């Protein structure tokens, strides 16, 4: 097993006993014996208002973790290694669900990072999947991620906003004055949207191929539907014909743990200010305040 799990009912009982206002979503939280998994060199803003409308260093870190993990997947005789990582901002939580009676925390401070920090940041049992799709389908996924930006109210803070990563580089230019993606009855795409004006992935030329093939590491939750066949978080784009989903059965928290281990022990990372804003997401007319 990747980590010692605690029984869900025990976790819930402790949460109630401690007077927490948030649910404990998985059976690894609360953690009774915190274990240091690594360290961060910078303070990381994890507030809901920040991660759901801005390029967030904590989102960069998790998306990097997803696409850099060695899954060892095969697509027939070919490797199915992801070159892109996507994590929905709703999976990054500032609520406190274990270890303290506080209700929210806006920051993970620089210094040692424990399993309790990570289980609290992502208090879900999501596993990683690798999705095989075309460039056009990938753009559709990203269009949904920015569809709620710029509304000027709480609707702008929907959990389907995506934090992104890619091998080499990724650049997404977003213009919120353009048509947002919309859905028909929450199940299918009725207007594909045109908010993404530039999409560049990797170092090849051209850097985006609409009919090319891409492998994307993301959360299994985003590729599934509820009992009424409504796509989770509205990601109808992941339900399009021809898309293939490869199960890894690796918990998201395990991918983050492994990336923390690499990040904390690699000379190139130890003394830098990574993770930081890398201009992967560039906004125009989106009415979002992104100063960290």
List its salient traits.
292 residues, alpha+beta, 5'-nucleotidase,  domain 2, 5-stranded mixed sheet, 3-stranded mixed sheet, 16 strands, 21% helix, disordered N terminus
How far the N terminus sits from the C terminus, by CA atoms, comes to 37 Å
The assembly state of the depicted protein chains is: single chain
- Considering the protein shown, what is the CATH homologous superfamily of the domain at 49-90 and 125-284? 5'-Nucleotidase, C-terminal domain
Provide the β-strand percentage band: 25-35%
CATH architecture of the domain at 49-90 and 125-284: Alpha-Beta Complex
Low-confidence stretches: 1-25
What is the topology, as strand order, of the major beta sheet? 9-5-14-8-15
SSE layout:
Blueprint: H1 8-17, E1 36-40, E2 44-45, H2 48-51, H3 57-68, E3 74-75, E4 78-79, E5 84-88, E6 107-108, E7 111-114, H4 115-121, E8 127-134, H5 135-145, E9 162-166, E10 170-175, E11 182-184, E12 188-191, E13 196-201, E14 213-219, E15 244-251, H6 252-265, H7 267-270, E16 281-284
Helix pairs in contact: 3-6
Summarize the structure.
This protein is α+β, with helices and mostly antiparallel strands and 292 residues long. The protein has helices spanning 8-17, 48-51, 57-68, 115-121, 135-145, 252-265, 267-270; strands at residues 36-40, 44-45, 74-75, 78-79, 84-88, 107-108, 111-114, 127-134, 162-166, 170-175, 182-184, 188-191, 196-201, 213-219, 244-251, 281-284. The chain contains seven helices and 16 strands.
